[in-house]
Amino acid sequence: MRAVRLTQVGKPLENADVPVPETGPTDVLIRVAAAGICHSDAHYRAGISEIDNLPLTLGHEVAGAVEEVGSDVTHLSAGDRVCVHYLVSCGSCEFCVRGLEQFCRSGQMIGKHRDGGYAEFIKVPGGNAFPLPDEIPFEVGAIMMCSSATALHALNKARFKAGESIAIFGFGGLGFSALQLARAFDGADVYVVEINPAKLASAASMGAIAIDARSADPVEQINEATADRGVDVALELIGSAKTMRQAVLCLAPVGRAALVGLTAESMSIHPYTELINKEAEIIGVSDHLATELPALIEFVRSGKLRFPPETLRVVDLDAAQINAALDALQDSIDHVRTVIVPSSDK
Ligand SMILES: [Zn+2]
Ligand SMILES: [Zn+2]
């Protein structure tokens, strides 16, 4: 089968001809219909996130049709449309048993620790294949399994609920989903903090109150807009100590700041006045859980979380096209996602 693989860190991905994976009794073989090209893939190619077993087929945002079903897999049949949960976990360690499989002692990420979806076929454990409703196109089924799932996990970790207000710091892929999900949760006012004018305009057009962090301190702007109350939840999606601190400072009493963006910087908080006095909480957010995916799929099926066609761009399963898409990802400022749709005629 055709696959596009990382053979050497720091070098372009390469076209390869590899055997179709052999499936065991607990696996399913999926004919890939769509695979999202993600920022993480650019990091793997560049060596920013380490990969130790090369060559490797990248691609952790995958949807397709079931081709073969292992004898122990009972919830799927050949031909079923599915999307893939990218975290493969053991199911039996302490964390898996508690439903916290992102901390599995032997967890593997598809497209990082094992071959992913930049290929005609992918083998995954049956438990990682979730039925994809007919209303959801394969392209959307692929890209929703990464940043959208994490945005939902962030809202869940922050215990965000109907009637609460929220500030979203950063309007990239995560923010695009977080804003729509916050509205789907029947949240009250949604503030989006950004410095990019196009993103501010886009957030406003989707129902958010745009906070331009270039014009004045966003914390002061949020305080002014809320009559010095602050917001119930703040999501930090950028990965900067400055905006993490702002996310904490804009909280109302008993507010929760969920930190999702990654940074190596340190952040400073005055415990008494900025945290203890308000009984505020700072919550770390990492990945998402299999148990959250049915709700996510339903939000997309019902149209509450949308990826309009103009936000999707399609390329073939071809190294040159994929490398060009990875190059373009570095400096993209819009919400257009590139999805690999393998042509069937080769
Ligand atoms: Zn991703
Ligand atoms: Zn485990």
Primary descriptors:
single chain, 346 residues, alpha/beta, 7-stranded mixed sheet, 6-stranded parallel sheet, 10 helices, 18 strands, globular, binds zinc ion
Structure description:
By secondary structure, the chain is α/β, with parallel strands linked by helices. Helix content is 27%, strand content 25%. It is built from ten helices and 18 strands. Strands 3, 5, 6, 9, 10, 17 and 18 form a seven-stranded mixed sheet that branches. It has a six-stranded parallel sheet with strand order 13-12-11-14-15-16, sandwiched between helices. Strands 2-1-4 form a three-stranded antiparallel sheet, with helices on one face. It is globular. The mean pLDDT is 95. Bound molecules: zinc ion (2 copies). One zinc ion (ZN) binds at residues 38, 40, 60-61, 146.
**Count of DSSP E strands?**
18
Tally the helices.
Answer: 10
N-C termini distance: 10 Å
Instruction: Bin the helical content.
Output: 25-40%
Short description:
This protein is an alpha/beta fold and 346 residues long. Helices cover 27% and strands 25% of the residues.
Write the layout of secondary structure elements.
Layout: E1 2-6, E2 14-17, E3 27-36, H1 39-46, E4 56-57, E5 61-69, E6 81-84, E7 87-88, H2 94-97, E8 108-109, E9 121-125, E10 129-131, H3 138-157, E11 166-169, H4 173-184, E12 190-194, H5 197-205, E13 209-212, H6 218-225, E14 231-236, H7 241-249, E15 251-259, H8 271-275, E16 281-284, H9 293-301, E17 312-315, H10 319-329, E18 337-340
Parallel strand pairs: 11-12, 11-14, 12-13, 14-15, 15-16, 17-18
Antiparallel strand pairs: 1-2, 1-4, 3-5, 3-9, 3-18, 5-6, 6-10, 7-8
Helix pairs in contact: 3-4, 3-9
One zinc ion binds next to helix 2.
